[in-house]
Amino acid sequence: xSIIRCEEKSLLPHQIAKELPNLKxxxxxxxxxxxxxxxxxxQNQNKLKWLNIQKCNMKYLPFDLTYFSHLHILHLVMCYELxxxxxxxxxxxxxxTLDLSYCCKLKxxxxxxxxxxxxxTLNLFHCSELKxxxxxxxxxxxxxTLDLSYCxxxxxxxxxxxxxxxxxTLDLYHCSRLKxxxxxxxxxxxxxMLNTYHCSGLKxxxxxxxxxxxxxxxxxxHCSRLKxxxxxxx
Length: 234
Known about the structure:
Strand 1, helix 1 and strand 2 form a beta-alpha-beta unit. The protein contains two helices and ten strands; from the N terminus they run E-H-E-H-E-E-E-E-E-E-E-E. The chain is 8% helix and 15% strand. The longest helix is centred in the N-terminal third of the chain and has 10 residues, at 33-42.
């Protein structure tokens, strides 16, 4: 079901949602927080597998995530005012994809994100005020894709990133304040692609990068402060 450009004065979405208790996909776009809250409350949250919220003007999620026990995909895309995620996001133990792209005011992720032990894709594209990643991100042991493109305030990656033993793609495109990569990146033995395009603050690569045995593509274009490559990459 899709709900688009719905404000408080409209009762129809609430009524429809109530009549569809076994809904598996719910999309809400340009919809007010109060309508989102009521529609979610009307749902059997145990049945919902895909929740897609786009361009909704909210600073915080107007609902609790605790009871979404079978949710596989959560999209909170272009929620430009979203400032934080609830701790209860760690309860989404079946989540496979979390897309937070263009959440431009999101400054941090909750530590509980490390409890998402089935997560395969984490998209933080253009989270331009994100300053750091929690150490608990290293607990995402099924993660395959981590997109940090245009996280222009991100200054470092946690050492725990080396624990992501299924990671295949790490995209750091235009992370212009990133100064270095942690030595632990050499532990990412399944990593195939590392994109550091326009990481203009990056001054050096760790020697351990030569340990990436599955490596296929490294993009260093426009890394203007990078003067030399470690001999370990041949």
